[in-house]
């Protein structure tokens, strides 16, 4: 049997778009002699649809799309993910389902059994767990069909399993020749290596071929890397889709071989490609075509505008430099050179006159020789207001430029540098911002070298650097990763060799800044634990370890 793997980038709720792409992909698969085409989880509506699932018209449109697809695609079997209704009188109203149809008739349907509710997942909110499924005889082979999380519960892989059931083991016990897993498996650093190892281990353990078909693209803050693959009974990758892009490959069960396309190598390259894809999808799926970035002369805004240009094209990105009396001559030069290197429109709007008016009205007794925190924040808010005004005037999306380290410790200004429609690098630690910048420059200098070498500074008062107020970012980021992603307590961080004073300082800032983060724009998730939906902390709290 020849199997076409169709790696789709859906737009949530755009059934016409999904219908047309699946039909065209199936036609191409037929031309290549394929017997079966496999699409990702919830391919018709896109994942995650969230509370659109509460709307009957949305669910009905999803079913209507399936019926149209079954009529339009003839001469090839198709596995496709969709939403289906639960006919029982108890339980949630919907199933997360997959069907195999051919020539207008559904041959097989399964409903997802394991419904995740951790991190960014909340499937139990809408879906009812499906009952155990059975293998299907198709084209002389017995295939098992599973949906994403159904494959993530093997006792030899997970020391503590989230679920009592293991759908894969059950299907193996019923006897199958190969396993299909359709997924919408989100990206984060290190995820693909773990996922590929897990899937390879399942194939090897059960001595069978495993076909993994993943969604690709960005839907709001959640990114999907694709990287669909086929693993043979030895756990070897014998077919591979590209990552971070729509793709189609063919796998032949007779030869045990298929198309193998290149994927990103290493976390730094993967994160960069994820951010480019996520920015492109967020901007365009929200109906925008252009973006504006406020350049400061620092590495964060340099990386953000580079990503924007790769995502949208230089003709669709504008740079705005808003210097004050505290802005160094280096930053005047570096921002202009960066804009030239990227080929973007470059605008300079000095903010001193705006700042002076604010200070005169708000702080008439201010000492001109000292710059208070209020005066620093006025500068940031003047810049943020100008950017939002440009957004209103030109119909473009403001991309904010703060990194995860700053967002974690509150080193950012509400209604100032936090303004924007998308926080592109808000899940990228400061130290990794530099790593990505060096990767970008490895093929030739794009980001002026001085930007990557000088001490980071907000330049809101004379001779200011971030480390006047914070420990070095290497220290800050190590503490933050342990606390946010690994869930370590302050005592555990200190026992692991972290300086007590630094730990207490950094974590105090993290806890006090929750109110800021909950007012931040959406940020693209690239770590295992990002701020926002995947880390739901109260603002009003007072917890201290005993």
CATH superfamily of the largest domain: Carbon-nitrogen hydrolase
**Secondary-structure arrangement, i.e. CATH architecture of the largest domain:** 4-Layer Sandwich
Write out the strand line-up for the largest beta sheet, numbering strands in chain order: 5-4-3-2-1-14-15
Q: What's the CATH C level of the largest domain?
A: Alpha Beta
In terms of structural class, how would the helical and strand content be classed? alpha/beta
- Characterize the largest beta sheet: strand count, sense, and whether it forms a barrel: 7 strands, mixed
What is the averaged pLDDT score? 96
- What percentage of residues falls in helices of 4 or more residues? 25-40%
Structural shape? elongated
Return residue spans where pLDDT drops below 50 for at least 5 consecutive residues.
none
Kindly identify the CATH topology of the largest domain.
Nitrilase/N-carbamoyl-D-aminoacid amidohydrolase
Strand content: 15-25%
Radius of gyration: 26 Å
Cα(first) to Cα(last) distance is 61 Å
Brief write-up:
This protein is α/β, with parallel strands linked by helices and 546 residues long.
């Amino acid at each position: 049997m020849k199997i076409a793997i169709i790696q789709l980038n859906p737009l949530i709720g755009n059934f016409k778009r999904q219908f047309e792409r699946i039909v065209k992909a199936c036609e191409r698969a037929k031309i290549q002699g394929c017997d079966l085409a496999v699409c990702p989880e919830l391919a018709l509506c896109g994942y995650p649809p969230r509370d659109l699932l509460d709307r009957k018209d949305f669910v009905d449109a999803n079913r209507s799309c399936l019926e149209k697809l079954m009529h339009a695609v003839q001469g090839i079997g198709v596995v496709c993910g969709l939403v289906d209704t639960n006919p029982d009188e108890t339980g949630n109203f919907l199933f997360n389902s997959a069907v195999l149809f051919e020539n207008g008739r559904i041959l097989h349907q399964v409903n997802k059994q394991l419904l995740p509710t951790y991190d960014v997942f909340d499937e139990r909110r809408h879906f009812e767990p499906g009952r155990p499924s059975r293998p299907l005889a198709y084209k002389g082979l017995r295939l098992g069909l599973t949906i994403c999380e159904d494959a993530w519960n093997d006792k030899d892989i997970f020391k503590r399993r989230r679920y009592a059931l293991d759908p894969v083991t059950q299907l193996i016990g019923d006897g199958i020749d190969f396993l299909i897993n359709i997924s919408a498996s989100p990206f984060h650093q290190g995820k693909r290596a773990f996922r590929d190892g897990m899937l390879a281990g399942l194939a090897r353990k059960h001595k069978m071929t495993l076909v993994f078909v993943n969604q690709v693209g960005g839907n709001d803050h959640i990114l999907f890397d694709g990287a669909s693959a086929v693993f043979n009974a030895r756990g070897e990758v014998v077919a591979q889709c590209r990552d971070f892009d729509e793709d189609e490959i063919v796998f032949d069960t007779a030869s045990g071989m298929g198309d193998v396309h290149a994927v990103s190598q290493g976390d730094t390259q993967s994160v960069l490609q994820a951010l480019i894809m996520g920015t492109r999808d967020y901007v365009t799926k929200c109906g925008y075509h252009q973006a504006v970035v406020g350049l400061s002369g620092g590495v964060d805004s340099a990386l953000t505008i580079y990503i924007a240009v790769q995502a949208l094209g230089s003709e669709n990105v504008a740079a705005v430099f808003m210097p004050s009396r505290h802005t160094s001559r280096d930053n005047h030069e570096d921002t202009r050179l960066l804009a030239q290197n990227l080929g973007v429109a470059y605008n300079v709007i000095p903010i001193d006159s705006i700042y002076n008016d604010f200070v005169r009205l708000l702080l008439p007794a201010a000492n001109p020789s000292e710059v208070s925190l209020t005066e620093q924040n006025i500068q940031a808010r003047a810049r943020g207001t100008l950017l939002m005004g440009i957004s209103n005037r030109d119909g473009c999306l403001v991309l904010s430029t703060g990194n995860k380290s700053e967002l974690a410790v509150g080193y950012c200004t509400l209604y100032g540098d936090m303004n924007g429609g998308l926080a592109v690098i808000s899940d990228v630690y400061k130290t990794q911002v530099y790593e990505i910048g060096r990767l970008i420059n490895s093929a030739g200098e794009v980001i002026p070298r001085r930007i990557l070498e000088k001490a980071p500074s907000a330049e809101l008062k004379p001779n200011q650097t971030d480390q006047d107020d914070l420990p070095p970012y290497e220290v800050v980021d190590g503490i933050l990763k342990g606390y946010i992603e690994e869930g370590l307590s302050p005592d555990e961080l200190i026992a692991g060799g972290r300086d007590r004073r630094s730990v207490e300082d950094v974590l105090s800032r993290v806890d006090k800044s929750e109110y800021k983060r909950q007012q931040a724009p959406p940020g693209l998730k690239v770590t295992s634990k990002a701020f926002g939906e995947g880390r739901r902390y109260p603002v009003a709290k007072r917890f201290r370890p005993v």
